[in-house]
UniProtKB/TrEMBL annotation:
Pfam families the UniProt entry points to: FAD_oxidored (PF12831)
Record lineage: Bacteria, Pseudomonadati, Verrucomicrobiota, Opitutia, Opitutales
Iron as UniProt keyword: yes
Biological source species: Rariglobus hedericola
Keywords (A to Z) from UniProt: 4Fe-4S, Iron, Iron-sulfur, Metal-binding, Oxidoreductase
Name recorded for this polypeptide: FAD-dependent oxidoreductase
Alphabetized InterPro entries for the sequence: FAD/NAD-bd_sf (IPR036188), HdrA-like (IPR039650)
Recorded GO MF terms: 4 iron, 4 sulfur cluster binding; metal ion binding; oxidoreductase activity
Length: 440
């Protein structure tokens, strides 16, 4: 995994930065976790600002055009509101997995519909949004983060906050604040591969569905093409789904291995390689799969999809055992039952380990409390966990549930005038989450 070489150093002149806002809760990163955190904090009475580096909320849902939601039987609360909003706008297609316990069986969504629905959710909740800005530095005073320096077209500016929530995905705010982090598997530091999601339009849906039913995940056709030397993508099958728009399908099939999402050059190389793979997969579909003969690539994600990068250390590390044996936690703030789902860090193959059917594992509050900092919480896929446990927790509905818990916790800490996130009564937090419809 490469990094940009350092050729020398330049000493930047000191300058005075303008403070553009002060708030109760500052959330950095407007992906699923950040949305859940900001909306939850605002609804609990906190003056909340949400900073997002792109021009839409949703992160991997929108900037990453993920288009598919895995089954979420034990996630309710704000995420359930999101799905309802997509349904009401005609942007939701119930998944082929089927409903589970009446709480949802996953599905596909229209990413443009998602943008509008998420705008409304955030703004109508009273959150102050800031697009096209990202964290450049952290102002840390002792064991507290006093504020965050953001950078945008207006230059470097300061937002001061009583509580800060890191929803940056890669844990950027936490690392800048000096919180220790882990990355990859223990043996070699290898992380799960990145993926560029893309869409194809002009598909004959009826014939394409029949093709997928006859050859699940188009695996037989894919392996045959590999044997002929037509495919170089290091993946064993084709992960594709039918979108709500007629004739539109999404693909989560490209696989970029050996790259680090926190390295500038690695992410650049990943984008270039991913687009090459997109063209290869699309050509395969047109040539080999009935229903795709006249289909074209209509959209590639403007940002590479990242499964795994940093994992920020909190007060508790969720272990592989916690996932598989569904350890009960008295301070549980979010639940899920997606399995350990590790896409090989080095090439073809996907490792899967399942928790017991009909049961759920939990993410405890202590996991999202940033180690050594009194007012910083984590609300994204980078919560403290083992490499294997992370592969289960990272699914977007569960990340939004974690964010909802973080937002409620931050608001309660402000409301009660607590000096540290560790002083918050977990029972009160869980009662608050239940009142707002969360499953804990």
């Amino acid at each position: 995994m490469s990094s940009t070489p350092v050729l020398g150093f330049y000493e930047e002149p000191a300058r005075t930065l303008p403070v553009i806002a002060e708030c109760d809760v500052l959330v950095v990163g407007g992906g699923p976790g950040g949305i859940g955190a900001a909306v939850s904090a605002a609804r609990n009475g906190a003056n909340t600002i949400l900073v997002e580096r792109f021009g839409s909320f949703g992160g991997t849902w929108t900037a990453g055009i993920l288009s598919a939601i895995m089954p979420y039987p034990y996630v309710k609360g704000i995420f359930a509101e999101v799905v309802r909003a997509w349904q009401e706008r005609g942007g939701w297609n119930e998944g082929h997995w089927g409903a589970h316990d009446g709480w949802g069986g996953g599905g596909t969504y229209d990413s443009e519909v998602a943008k509008v629905a998420l705008d409304r959710l955030v703004v109508d909740s009273g959150v102050t949004p800031l697009f096209f800005a990202q964290a450049a530095a952290v102002i840390r005073e002792g064991n507290r983060v006093r504020g965050v320096i953001i950078e945008s077209k207006e230059g470097r500016q300061v937002i001061l906050a009583k509580m800060v929530i890191d929803s940056s995905g890669d844990g950027d705010v936490s690392v800048m604040a000096g919180v220790p982090a882990d990355k990859g598997r223990e043996s070699d530091g290898g992380v799960q591969p990145m993926t560029m999601i893309f869409k194809m339009t002009g598909v004959d849906d009826e014939r394409a569905v029949a093709s997928k039913q006859a050859d699940p995940d188009f695996a037989k056709a894919w392996q045959a093409a590999k044997a002929r030397g037509e495919i170089t993508v290091p993946r064993e099958d084709v992960l594709a789904g039918r979108n709500p728009k007629p004739g539109e399908w999404n693909f989560n099939t490209t696989r970029i291995v050996g790259k680090d999402a926190t390295k500038l050059r690695d992410v650049t190389d990943a984008m270039v390689e991913a687009r090459r793979q997109v063209a290869e997969v699309a050509a395969f579909m047109r040539k080999n799969i009935p229903g795709f003969e006249n289909a074209v690539v209509s959209e590639t994600a403007p940002h590479i999809g990242v499964r795994e990068s940093r994992r920020i250390r909190g007060d508790y590390t969720v272990s592989t055992k916690d996932i598989v044996e569904v350890t009960p936690f008295e301070d549980c703030i979010a639940c899920g039952n997606w399995f350990i789902d590790i896409h090989s860090p080095t090439g073809e193959g996907t490792e899967r380990v399942y928790p017991p059917e009909g049961k759920w594992y939990g993410v405890p509050y202590r996991t999202i409390r940033a180690q050594g900092v009194d007012n910083l919480l984590i609300a994204s896929r980078c919560v403290d966990s083992s490499h294997e446990a992370h592969a289960a927790i990272r699914i977007t509905p569960q990340v939004m549930a974690i964010g909802e818990g973080a937002g409620a916790a931050a608001a309660l800490c402000v409301k009660l005038g607590l000096k540290s996130t560790r002083d918050l009564d977990a029972k009160l937090l869980r009662e608050t989450l239940r009142k707002q419809g969360a499953f804990v």
